[in-house]
């Protein structure tokens, strides 16, 4: 071992000794501070490096002559500068900011690797750096963006859904570093993923670029985890109402000379979720529901999740910009206080039903710019997921909302229906291979292939239907081939992308009778062609964007096979197809001004055929196809920044989703359980204190207009099922000292303790407090 170490030192020393000359410089921003981790390319010799934490860079073995330096970094304008080596004076390059502040949410340019291909898409990239000190999770951060609505059934760990410009659920795909997130399971979702782990979030409205090649129907969210080539430790802990604990420890070691990098990301979440709710109790004398509600505490709704993710590999080497292998373990435990698909709050709660999940995930990622020759970039990943889910509903006892119960009240059934102790075993292989080539400064082509192979087996001690349904593997294979071409003219002011996608779908499943005595094989194969175009034109302070896409989405495993407990199978679901049109205008004043205004308006139209909709029917809930659904709407965002201290932000959305099938009994009805008018107002104040201290105070107000959670045609004006309008307010206070090394944050959610209802009219938590401490150190 000593011999190997000595040899490595000898090789390093010899390399340094052979260096003839070094070109060095520094990148600074408009405040003359160093720009860390920016990309610097020496064009003539085709060498690329990254700046260090102070903005310094260097190239070794540089011969005398004239050179062109190309500099780029997220949030700054690209810059090209000609130099003559040897230098006559120290080299310092100043970059111009291209960011617009939005309540500490920074709307950035595209990532450098895909700048040309993504420039025309309707996309926002959220920088999360200043949110890492707060107690918000990824879903709460997304809820501040115009067009985005986060639906949640209750507290931490409850079911949730993301809606974006008229489409929701799995029509909007979520990714972690380009890998579809929904296959990571319920232990790793947007509403439990800590902001500490996130470097940024890309939000695509409408057409989706081909490198996010899952079958998204009309939008995507891509979470970007930190990959900076530094060594650091980032640890945080928060405690809040309802015995809520959140902890996160993330660390990385990076060796500059060898490029060797090791990362660990981890988190732990727990909440009792014992928040008060209003319930119509059963009157023991009359056997009927009381006329007035009684406030009770939820008592069987605890949630625990944890994750640890380790990766090792190399970063910033000649053979790879990033080559990492990793393994992740995650699990969660969720008590079921009630049927998660019940309308409102039932008269009788559950007291023992629960669900557990374990996942072991292996990943390999590879990224390389200028592979083999200049202009060819390659990106790929392979992920294997091995998971086990256990859903248990076997208790014969009948509970009440005061925590008491009657023993052996229903000895032949569980609390929500037929007894079930279902184990589901899933194996999932995911792969994506992407290559792009710059033909010139104005032409770019890209190709992409993605694979998703899922196999599910299971067993149930009590339900014969589940035993028959999952005795043999149920297999789903999805493949997508895609290609794109990008063309830019007028000094890149007009940028257009055309793309095409080929979808392949192969389903092999089992249909079981209700009693499990008979079964039939169900085989379905399909393929489809998707295509689209996206274009943008920049004129001074105004940017116009437009995109169109014909997209497809094939049913997910849980939509096809159910959950074995409350959702029954429907293997005959047809794939969705949608024509999506987006048009937007963005206006922004100069970033050099002390006070800056940004305004963006986007209009959208969605025409969807075979719309997959969840139909809630207690233990017989299932997914169905609505023949045709149209969605039209507009979203608006405004932001005004005053002297880098005061920030006013507004985001509002109106969307009209309607049944467009003339043969349907609900023709022209609004699609149920979908809000159509919502928005938020954010006010923020940042104050710089002496000795590198900072105090930030942020308030957020959110409004959701009343909407029906059943088809509006059903019932009369007095009996229609309606979720009322609601207005909530939050305040967050963050204190940072020693340039971010120590951070403290206090959050009060729902300050006025407003009664809040959401998905399926289920009540959400009232006023809640949380406190967070974070420690961050890096080299």
Automatic annotation (TrEMBL):
Membrane protein topology class: Multi-pass membrane protein
Keyword Membrane assigned: yes
Alphabetized InterPro entries for the sequence: Beta-barrel_TonB_sf, CarboxyPept-like_regulatory, Plug_dom, Plug_dom_sf, TonB-dep_rcpt-like
Domain TonB-dependent receptor plug: 117-220
Segment forming the signal sequence: 1-19
One Gene Ontology term, aspect cellular component: cell outer membrane
Subcellular location: Cell outer membrane
Family to which this protein belongs: Belongs to the TonB-dependent receptor family.
Name of the featured protein: TonB-dependent receptor
